[in-house]
From TrEMBL:
<keyword id="KW-1133">Transmembrane helix</keyword>
<comment type="function">
    <text>Plays a role in transport between endoplasmic reticulum and Golgi.</text>
</comment>
<feature type="transmembrane region" description="Helical">
    <location>
        <begin position="260"/>
        <end position="281"/>
    </location>
</feature>
<keyword id="KW-0333">Golgi apparatus</keyword>
<protein>
    <recommendedName>
        <fullName>Endoplasmic reticulum-Golgi intermediate compartment protein</fullName>
    </recommendedName>
</protein>
<dbReference type="GO" id="GO:0000139">
    <property type="term" value="C:Golgi membrane"/>
</dbReference>
<dbReference type="InterPro" id="IPR039542">
    <property type="entry name" value="Erv_N"/>
</dbReference>
<dbReference type="GO" id="GO:0030134">
    <property type="term" value="C:COPII-coated ER to Golgi transport vesicle"/>
</dbReference>
<dbReference type="GO" id="GO:0005789">
    <property type="term" value="C:endoplasmic reticulum membrane"/>
</dbReference>
<feature type="domain" description="Endoplasmic reticulum vesicle transporter N-terminal">
    <location>
        <begin position="10"/>
        <end position="101"/>
    </location>
</feature>
<feature type="domain" description="Endoplasmic reticulum vesicle transporter C-terminal">
    <location>
        <begin position="111"/>
        <end position="282"/>
    </location>
</feature>
<dbReference type="Pfam" id="PF07970">
    <property type="entry name" value="COPIIcoated_ERV"/>
</dbReference>
<dbReference type="GO" id="GO:0006890">
    <property type="term" value="P:retrograde vesicle-mediated transport, Golgi to endoplasmic reticulum"/>
</dbReference>
<dbReference type="InterPro" id="IPR012936">
    <property type="entry name" value="Erv_C"/>
</dbReference>
<keyword id="KW-0256">Endoplasmic reticulum</keyword>
<dbReference type="GO" id="GO:0006888">
    <property type="term" value="P:endoplasmic reticulum to Golgi vesicle-mediated transport"/>
</dbReference>
<keyword id="KW-0931">ER-Golgi transport</keyword>
Amino acid sequence: MRVCNHIDYRRFDIYRKVPKDLTQPTYTGAFISILCCVFILFLFLSELTGFIATEIVNELYVDDPDKDSGGKIDVSLNISLPNLHCDLVGLDIQDEMGRHEVGHIDNSMKIPLNQGDGCRFEGEFTINKVPGNFHVSTHSATAQPQSPDMTHTIHKLAFGEKLQVGTHTQNTISFFPLLSHRYKKYREPSMPLASHDYILKIVPTVYEDLSGRQRFSYQYTVANKEYVAYSHTGRIIPAIWFRYDLSPITVKYTERRQPFYRFITTICAIVGGTFTVAGIIDSCIFTASEAWKKIQIGKMS
């Protein structure tokens, strides 16, 4: 004779249901429930915003990240000299590897300003990854002017690839100190016959997006001074010098987004914790109100 044992799986239910007629709604409970739902919605939207946004994490290490560049750095320069004719303006490049180029003209353009009395120089060129300088001067001119006015405005000075950082990131990166404020130009309204030195410390930079694609660029710090130079033969022809050196430290920026499982865990903690705390508050208020009612009934009797 075979006995069939019927297992009632309902006994494993840890969420036992209370009959509706055994519950008692209150105005206080309704108010707390509404506040609870609003609070949960607020926290949920805050966490969702943080989940969608991309965080930029940075790290430092010693290495040359862009080994495929052939030891070269691309430079983009845009500068205006309102009191110097375009025939006199030139770009000179020299470094510790023996490079000495006067009057660089490749990938450059001169635009007359102020009815020909001034000049805007725009150029793109490469420099070696060794200490050196490039300068805007009249050294390449056929005839040197008597009093060259080196008053200038720097519109752009950039090294390496232009990086477009995503608009949904929580951090911002300034790659170009001379343009640290958008639409602000770096001006030197100074002595006309003075030379200008910009001392640059170039820092290799790697930017890795969410897909793992790496792009290479360069940040730099800058300090500047203004002076009138003399030698034993007299005053030296003024120029606008950009003296640079490379940092051995590489900065790497990595885009990261909060993992989905962490987002779900946080949402569950918010919902569960809020309902639990709200339930405790409601229970305390209800218990206190019931006790107060009993006290009042006892006084009346």
